[in-house]
Amino acid sequence: MSFRNRLSFFFILLVILPVLAVALVGILIVRDSEVGKTEAGLEQAKTAAAGLYRESRERAETVARSVAEDEQLAVAVRDRDRAALQDRLEDLARRGGAVRVRLSLAGGQTVEAGGGDAVAPAVTRIVDADGRPAGQMRLSVTTARDYAAVLGSVTGLEVLLTQEDRLLAGSLAAEAEEVGGLPRQGAAELGGERYRVTAVDTTGFDDSMFRVRLLEPEDELDAAISDNTLFIVLILVAFLICALVFALTAARSLQAQIARLLTGARSIGAGDFSVKVPVEGNDDFAALGNEFNSMGRQLEGRLEDLQLERARLRENVRRVGESIGKGLDREALLRIVVRTAVDGVGAECGRAVMRRGSNGTFAEAARAGDVAPYIAAVQAAENAALHAGEAAETTISGATALARPLLAPGPEAGVLGVVSIARQETPFSQGERELFEYLTNQVVISIENADLHETIQRQAVTDELTGLFNHRRFQEVMAAEVERTRRFGQELGLIMLDIDDFKLVNDTYGHLQGDHVLREVAHALRECSREIDEPARYGGEEMAVALPQTGLQGAYEFAERARQRIEGLQIGLLDGAGTLRVTASFGAASLPHSARVDKDALVAAADAALYRAKRTGKNRTVKAE
After folding, report:
1. In this structure, are strands 209-217 and 158-163 parallel, antiparallel, or unpaired?
2. Which of 348, 382, 420, 551 could form a disulfide with 491 if both were Cys (CB 3.0 to 4.6 A apart)?
3. Contact 197, 156 (CB under 8 A)
4. Terminus-to-terminus CA distance in the chain, angstroms?
5. 193 belongs to the catalytic site
6. Cα–Cα distance between 280 and 278 in angstroms, integer?
7. Is 15 exposed, middle or buried (0-12, 13-18, 19+ CB in 10 A)?
């Protein structure tokens, strides 16, 4: 085999095959990445579908409560006047925005208003004008078509709603048989088009199951994969062309090499850079041998550099992974950024100081390396950066420090902190300054994202009007506390309260005054609560407090304190024409004194006690039986 053939063989073995393998792996990774993005988007769409369903049901619950509290409807229920019931129910449904409502009375009588494919129904009990239970009401404010339209607008996907073998609504023209054959998850074909499909099951107006299918066309996925694959192929072709040109040039220049140089070439080709080619004389072959030896030394050094670079790359990848996992952890993020800044610009050490406390003093929040030998230069650079409001560099006793303030974005501009790095003697170049500026800018963005995340988390569990926990948070707390009671045998108290004659306040003074009353009562309830107590707005004018480690008597005493505090409130009228006084009725219950050790039993016991307090004169506390 000739030298050229050998060189061609090594070129194919060492260059072309690995590059093809890398390209293939890259294409597979691109495809998996795009498919993963599509699946993640579908999962987010499922979450949006469930959230939209809960929102529709909560709106239905609000309307259902107002309908159930209607006095004319209660009179008609008591009198069993079907015509009056039908008229009043239709009028209340129309005013409340209900699309379908069904009243099921004791004795089997049913009255219904509206119709069609309604979803997300709310179910509530009905009492007649004498306060006696008379049946239940099922009400919905959302049609299947409206739900599908809003869900499609929110997610940007195609939406199909089916109930058993019937197509209720959707954004695609399709037969019910085609839709029924779609899978719950994965790829499917509909109308000659291919889609990625996911589904959510929930209940309709009659508790029958209906399925929400979310579809994303695979054309977009295929286009993204094709674009990325084409980009990889172009890069591969360009690389192979460059490599081929280099190989042909090297082959022509080395074709006349003799046997003793071939031994050295084989050693170098096998990766043994320590072997030296024998050199004799001072002719062209000796010069070529010297070049081979020099090349061996250079490759050995490059290999060491590459190993060091690979180690740094692994560290940077690990650090990026940490930053992804700790993107909302300020302290961890600052440590990663300071470490990256030190490594990225070749500094010896660095630190971040952040503004802390109400007095606005600065304290060290993160550090990389030993800052002590450079502390004078670091502090001087930090002070200069704070004073100038921009990056500053100082040199003291041979130590050079670079600092940049972290400026808060938006109208409330101010200094959040300072990030600084230092090294011995060598000033920082313009490129290093730009890299340092980029990293500090990312810190500000991440801190802003962390603040926004905390705000959203707080808002998600807080009732906007009263500042108490909302109903969702209350249910989570009750589930956790009941589980703790079951596992450790601790007691758990619960009180539920309802403001007496609150509807009269709204009717007499208006809803703004009613909102003010709710805020004042909520404030009084918080003042009575311990740190471990969980006051929440249960719904409307009804509130609840979970009392960990509290028995029935303790819950009763807490309720009495809260009732007396509310009774003593003097709530100013919004028009300034005097004050208003309100009272509240309380029901107290506890676990494990309830019949069953579960959340629903405890809530039901407290609610029943509250109902007895209302019936027996209001403004009082009643213990659960």
Report:
1. antiparallel
2. 551
3. no
4. 100
5. no
6. 7
7. middle
Cα separation, 542 vs 545, in Å, equals: 11
User: Cβ of 85: how many Cβ atoms within 10 Å?
Assistant: 21
- What is the mean pLDDT, run by run of 10 residues, along the chain of 625 residues? 61 70 76 76 86 90 89 87 87 88 85 86 88 89 88 86 76 67 78 82 79 81 75 79 70 57 66 65 67 72 66 51 51 84 88 78 89 92 90 92 84 78 89 87 74 66 85 89 84 93 92 92 91 88 91 93 92 88 94 67 92 94 90
pTM for the structure as a whole: 0.37
Distance CA 68, CA 237 (A): 73
Where do we find the tokens 């004018």?
541
- Residue 618: closest CA among 523, 489, 504: 504
R_g of the chain computed on alpha carbons: 37
- Which structure tokens are listed for 286? 């000796």
Q: Minimal CA–CA distance to 212: which of 403, 91, 13, 51? A: 51
List the catalytic residue out of 34, 158, 481, 541.
541
Structural domains in the chain, sorted by start:
1-255 (no CATH), 326-447 (3.30.450.40), 471-623 (3.30.70.270)
